[in-house]
Input
Amino acid sequence: MPDSAAPDIPPVTYATAAQQRAYIAAMHRIRHARRPGEPVRVYISAPPLIAQRPQWPERLAKIRNRLPGVELLQFGDLFTPENYEDQWHEMSPSFDGLVVVGVTKRGPSSHVYRLGEVARLEVIDIVKTGRPVLLHARKYGLVPFVDCKIHRVGTSERLRTKVTIPAGWDPKDYEPTLTAALGALRPRKAEDRQTGQADERDHLIRPFASPSQ
Output
């Protein structure tokens, strides 16, 4: 008889295998399309109550450590409260990716993060273009949105987003979606120009792309 007391295995991802394969293929295409020497810009979306804490520079350093050579941009680098709405639509197409820092009410070990109205819209803008979007959690580091469970919460007048990290997520495992996203955000050096090898790698991953891509 099966052991009914056996613990459930926590999920590593909420994405289907097909969604993961399509995501990885898309990240590889971004990586291979980048020209050697081309700068990579990532916008860090963080609410003021986090970005103004004394611990914020330390957290930002952890993000920078995972994205070496990438230009990290914050609200104060580009916007003011008065010009944000207009400037976001002008500046966001120049971002290669987005890292979102959410709020949790259950401490650093929580799997559930909430994004406010502004962050929710920023995520939608970047996701719909196919560029990588990652959540930064204090305990789990960077987690691709594709692996998370996303829920819309709130009223139509004030929509927000609840993001749940898989309970089995382990940053030490370097899940393939995270590896692919980090690769898509890695600047290419001049010596990386090896078109033959890139074409071969692209051929190998193409069968895993979704039919619509």
